[in-house]
Design a protein that fits this description.
Layout (H helix, E strand, L loop, with lengths): L3 E7 L7 H16 L2 E7 H4 L14 H12 L2 E7 L7 H8 L10 E8 L7 H12 L3 E2 L4 E4 L3 E2 L2 E2 L2 H33 L1
Parallel strand pairs: 1-2, 1-3, 3-4, 4-5, 4-6
Antiparallel strand pairs: 7-8
Helix pairs in contact: 1-6
Length: 191
């Protein structure tokens, strides 16, 4: 059996990034519960390969590789900084290339970073509808962090860290249910 993959997709436009730090914390929490291979698709790195493409056939090899990594993931962690009231434009442009059926029933953890708590609803008003379009399973616990939640680029807020753990448990539950369903179907097919 092949190892499961967790792909963190971050919409930050520069480095270093608290958004990347948040996404990595979430991925690590998932990996602590479920053996997963972890990958990062960072807009600050792949963005230059996306910007001029209007169709998937126009993507560079690097950008196509990022798209395939996202489509093939077992778990997604998506995080964007708030930029003018929403996720970054290149973050959305990246997901415009994802096949409409590629994320069906895939567990997704939603996260964002911002300057103040006033932007926390980006997750419910922007990210959750985007992944509802893809028919993904967004976990109930969403994660929003501001600068004071970090020590440099390390997550320090104990309440937020508890929410990270809760989101990871929800991913594990979704994956466990999916495995049980698959095993039940396999058992039923052999009877």
């Amino acid at each position: 059996m092949s190892r499961l993959t967790t792909v963190a997709v971050t919409g930050n436009l520069g480095q270093p990034s608290r958004t990347v730090a948040l996404a990595k914390s979430i991925s690590a929490a998932v990996a602590a519960l479920i053996e997963t291979e972890q990958h990062l698709v960072d807009i600050s790195e792949v963005g230059p390969f996306l910007g001029q493409a209007l169709q998937r056939s126009q993507l560079s090899g690097e950008a196509e590789q990022a798209i395939r990594l996202i489509e093939g993931a077992d778990v997604l962690v998506v995080a964007s900084p708030v930029y003018k009231g929403s996720y970054t434009g290149l973050f959305k442009h990246l997901f415009d290339f994802i096949a409409p059926d590629a994320l069906i029933e895939k567990p997704v953890v939603l996260a964002a970073t911002g300057g103040t708590d006033r932007h926390a609803l980006i997750i419910e008003h922007q990210l959750r509808p985007l992944f509802s379009f893809f028919r993904a399973h967004t976990v109930p616990t969403a994660l929003y962090a501001i600068e004071s939640d970090f020590d440099g680029h390390r997550l320090k807020n104990s309440e937020l860290l508890a929410r990270v753990s809760a989101a990871a448990r929800q991913v594990a539950t979704l994956l466990g249910s999916r495995a049980e369903k698959a095993n039940g179907v396999a058992v039923a097919a052999t009877i």
